[in-house]
Design a protein that fits this description.
heterodimer; A: four-stranded parallel beta sheet; 9 strands; B: five-stranded mixed beta sheet; 43% helix
Chain lengths: 428, 155
């Protein structure tokens, strides 16, 4: 079963509205507005067990239930689709946006109805130019067909949906940074509480969801929570877009049951490592997840199992580290990214990540000192959750701390050899 | 006056559609940049005044984004992905080849003003690494050997 991607044309074109509608598209909106109350939809999504696909895995229905209900609740309310896919190693939402934009719109309409939002926003990164064109066209088509706008299907409920195209900054993907960006401010994080569900955009109740999360909603509403739960193989419900990149034979993206193993993704779908290369470790779900070792390939790619193994499912797009790529160089690349993308709002992140990147740069170029490795471990520990405003620095600490544990010998060899032991082989 | 009457109207109209005028500031900056290549100081000042922001507030937003340019850029902007999957797949050699072929250093503009070469964070095309963009076009599975022929399409 591939509810999320099954209809996406192989030609690379977007699924046209007529084809989407012929396959049952927008019937979930008809069903919801005709037969279901908003709280019934929230209950169905809760019962489905859907957890957020942006990386944190928070229960989607539970999140929606935190929006204040009733006649005296603050208005207007907002729903935001987070399409600012900027987690290094992640390329899953691009396919959903480019291949089936109406599925996202239908998910957004349903989510907006469930929380009784009047405004919906798609927060899209600038670089996804094709997605922007296709979303604009789809929004116009949906409005012309009466799925968006005033008094949808005669229900008395109206939804204004707009596309916001960002201009490149990882912090915009952080929920509260995104809210500031939409308001026309620097995308620095906000202190929580209050949580956005109570006080978000312009101080009004706001729900922010990842694109893949929202794309699941039409299918859950149309086919019910039991069906959705049956799609998962283990503890988590539904399917998931899994990916693999790095020096695997067939890098790619696949919609698979929640809970497939990392081995099935890397060795099965991606065809294993390229000729002559061995897998040393992998990031299970993007740059901000702890490395797992090649010995942990049988971990089920679901939220709790990956956490138990010492990492996070994150975005579910695996980055494979082979035995001829320098782990110190890879971590240097990751920490340079995080240091650059830190918004500078709080000190541990602004100063700590730059410091870590500088130490790694010295190590990689052969100028590291033995104590640098310990300093890196201390830095990673001091960037743990709770010491910063948002999750950027704790996320940056994850690949660093795990690399120090898994590839400690490589770090030390850079010091003792006075150069990168991989550099000669890499040049070959 | 640095903005045209038409530009001022477009910005004011967009601002009026928003719950608060400043929410239109990124669109306004982009409108300026699309026509001038970058956002010059005098245009920034005018946009700020239309939106009821101080210059400092608007510049704080403008400089926050990787893709709002406050200084002139070349006719074509080359964005080379330097994130982890592209790094594993050899983006450094690709960038060096692009730099040689364009005459633009990393973070700079070629002497003939044709290309600006900028590093960019993950382009979300990791299964086709290494990737780059030239203006609005995505180029996938690029090689150092093919760098010159990609650039040749952008006179």
């Amino acid at each position: 079963m591939k509810p999320l991607t099954g209809l996406i044309p192989r030609s690379g074109d977007a699924l046209p509205l007529a084809d989407y509608a012929a396959a049952g598209g927008y019937q979930a909106v008809r069903k919801a507005l005709g037969e279901m109350t908003p709280s019934e939809i929230i209950q169905v999504v809760k019962d489905s067990g859907l957890r957020g696909r942006g990386g944190a895995g928070f229960g989607t229905g539970l999140k929606w239930s935190f929006v204040p209900a009733g006649p005296d609740a603050p208005r207007p309310r907002h729903l935001v689709a987070n399409a600012d896919e900027m987690e290094p190693g992640t390329f899953k939402d691009r396919l959903l946006l480019e291949g089936n934009p109406h599925q996202l719109l239908e998910g957004m309409i349903l989510a907006s109805y469930a929380i009784q939002a009047e405004h919906a926003w798609i927060f899209l990164r600038w670089e996804y130019r094709l997605a922007a064109r296709r979303l604009r066209a789809a929004i116009a088509e949906a409005a012309a067909a009466g799925w968006l706008g005033r008094d949808i299907l005669g229900s008395g409920w109206s939804l204004d949906l707009r596309l916001h195209v960002s201009a490149g900054r990882y912090m915009c993907g952080e929920e509260t940074g995104l809210l500031n960006a939409l308001e026309g401010r620097r995308a620095t994080p906000r202190a929580k509480p209050p949580f956005p569900q109570a006080s978000g955009l312009w101080g009004r109740p706001t729900v922010v969801q990842n694109v893949e999360t929202l794309c699941n909603i039409p299918h859950i509403v149309a086919r019910g929570p039991a069906w959705f739960r049956s799609l998962g193989r283990g503890a988590d419900a539904g399917t998931k877009l899994y990916g693999a990149s790095g020096k695997v034979r067939r890098p790619g993206l696949w919609e698979l049951p929640m809970g497939v193993t990392a081995r099935e993704v890397i060795e099965g779908h991606a065809g294993g490592m390229r000729e002559g290369l061995r897998l040393r470790g992998f990031l299970p779900g993007g740059a901000s997840t702890d490395f797992l070792s090649a010995g942990q390939l049988d971990v089920a790619m679901e939220f709790d199992a990956v956490a138990l193994a010492g990492s996070r499912l994150g975005t579910g797009t695996i980055v494979a580290l082979d035995d001829r790529t320098c782990p110190v160089g890879m971590v240097l690349n990751l920490e340079t990214f995080f240091a650059q993308e830190s918004c500078g709002w709080c000190t541990p992140c602004r100063e700590g990540l730059r410091w870590a990147a500088d130490l790694l740069s010295a190590l990689e170029s052969g100028h590291g000192r033995p104590e640098d490795v310990e300093t890196l471990a201390e830095l990673a520990a001091s960037l743990a959750p709770g010491s910063t405003y948002c999750a950027l620095a704790p996320g940056a600490a994850e690949p660093l701390q795990s690399a120090l544990l898994l590839f400690g010998d490589d770090f030390r060899r850079h010091v003792t050899d006075g150069r990168c032991p991989y550099s000669l082989r890499a040049a070959a | 006056m640095s903005l045209t009457k038409e530009e001022r109207q477009a910005i004011a109209q967009e601002a009026a559609r928003m719950p608060s005028p400043r929410a239109a500031c990124l669109d306004a900056l982009r409108l300026v940049q699309e026509r001038r290549g970058h956002v010059p100081d005098d245009a920034l000042r005018e946009v700020a005044s239309i939106l009821g922001m101080s210059e400092a507030e608007l510049d704080a937003v403008a400089t926050f984004y990787n893709l709002i340019f406050r200084r002139p850029v070349g006719r074509h902007v080359v964005l080379v992905c330097e994130s982890v999957s592209c790094w594993i797949m050899g983006c450094e050699r690709l960038r060096e080849a692009l730099s040689r072929a364009s005459g633009a250093p990393r973070g700079g503009t070629s002497p003939d003003g044709r290309f600006t070469l900028l590093p960019i964070q993950c382009l979300g095309d990791c299964d086709h690494a290494p990737a780059l963009m030239v203006d609005e076009d995505l180029h996938r599975e690029a090689t150092p050997e093919g760098a010159a022929s990609i650039l040749a399409r952008y006179p």
